[in-house]
Design goal:
Layout: H1 5-18, E1 20-23, H2 29-45, E2 73-74, H3 81-87, H4 90-100, E3 105-112, E4 121-124, H5 127-130, E5 137-143, E6 154-156, E7 169-170, E8 180-181, E9 191-193, E10 200-204, E11 209-211, E12 223-229, E13 235-237, E14 243-245, E15 250-251, E16 254-256, E17 262-268, E18 271-277, H6 281-289
Parallel strand pairs: 13-16
Antiparallel strand pairs: 1-10, 2-3, 3-12, 3-14, 4-11, 5-10, 5-12, 6-9, 6-11, 7-8, 14-15, 17-18
Helix pairs in contact: 1-4
This protein binds 2-oxoglutaric acid.
Residues 112, 120-121, 126, 139, 141, 154, 209-211, 223, 225, 297 line the site of 2-oxoglutaric acid.
């Protein structure tokens, strides 16, 4: 797929305005078919370091959970060459460079299999996990299957990338394989992102996003995801080191810790505004202990 200068300008304008943009057919169907075969083979080979099948379903020990058979893979680029090559693919670099004004650093890969019946991931901001300083992170989310509301496509809150990091509340673990969420801000709405296999969704690390369960009876919703940080960042959470330039070489950055204020919505002078609050005592202890942020983005 050729990316024209005009396309790139258009993508950058939408990304700045809405916090996300979809680049259609960035990867060819033959490449997508190759990824599906590769990752399904890897999954069949057995468990990998960092596999995550999700938190237990609250109050339910009996319902079979399809994620047990298809847990999410993480950081495959550290041991799998096709994942590493994809993470630093020139097409991703070209788009991100135009969205950010400079080449990013690459820090994470993930593969969501999301088989029929699997839970989704509650709405969140990726910066909650990555803690990039200064600036934020950005994701490249490659659809390996056509995705729509039935098989649990991505859901995003357009414009929420302009908000600060918001405080989380407990999530409904019957619907989400993670247990914290960011409530949808008043006046904003959640929108489904319908994609074809081969399309890539780029989204800002402050954008509130997630997905609902895969309610289809027979369709996977697989996606290959890369997480990146702005190319002038100085620190990122420990879990995301080593940090790579888009030519694959390593760059030394500092380690950011959990903590810092998060935003809650309050009424002030008849308006609903975000007020930054100190982290809860537990996080303050974690900072003192030098803990990393949780390992899920
Ligand atoms: O694919 C999903 O359902 C969620 C992915 C996600 O939250 C992410 O890539 O940060």
């Amino acid at each position: 797929m050729t990316l024209s200068h005009n396309d790139l300008l258009r993508y950058a304008a939408q990304y700045q305005r809405d916090g996300y943009v979809i680049v259609p057919s960035l990867f060819a169907s033959s490449e997508v078919a190759g990824f599906i075969e590769h990752f399904m083979d890897l999954r069949r080979q057995g468990s990998k370091e960092g596999d995550f099948a999700g938190v237990p379903i609250a109050g339910d020990d009996n319902t079979p959970d399809p994620l047990q058979q298809y847990p999410r893979m993480i950081h495959m680029h550290r041991w799998d060459e096709p994942s590493r090559d994809w993470m630093i693919d020139q097409r991703i670099d070209t788009v991100m460079t135009s969205l950010l004004g400079m080449s990013p650093y690459a820090v994470q890969t993930m593969l969501y299999f999301k088989p029929p019946g699997a839970r989704g991931q509650a709405l969140h901001q990726d910066q909650y996990y990555l803690r990039v300083q200064p600036g934020t992170c950005i994701a490249a989310w490659l659809a390996l299957d056509d995705c729509d509301e039935a098989n649990g496509c991505m859901q995003i809150v357009p414009g929420s990338h302009k908000l600060p990091l918001l405080c989380t509340v407990p999530a409904d673990t019957t619907q989400s394989f993670t247990d914290v969420m960011v409530p949808v801000p008043e006046g904003m709405t959640v929108a489904p992102i319908i994609m074809k296999a081969g399309d890539v969704l780029f989204f800002n690390g402050q954008l509130i996003h997630g997905s609902f369960p895969n309610s289809s009876s027979n369709r996977f919703r697989r996606s290959l995801i890369g997480h990146y940080i702005v190319g002038d960042a100085e620190k990122v959470a420990k879990y995301y080191h080593p940090v790579l330039r888009m030519d694959g070489t390593e760059v030394t950055l500092g380690v950011s810790k959990r903590g810092g204020a998060c935003g809650v919505w309050v009424e002030k002078d008849g308006e609903t505004v975000v007020e930054m609050r100190d982290p809860e005592a537990k996080s303050a202890v974690a900072v003192a202990d030098g803990d990393d942020p949780p390992l899920i983005a």
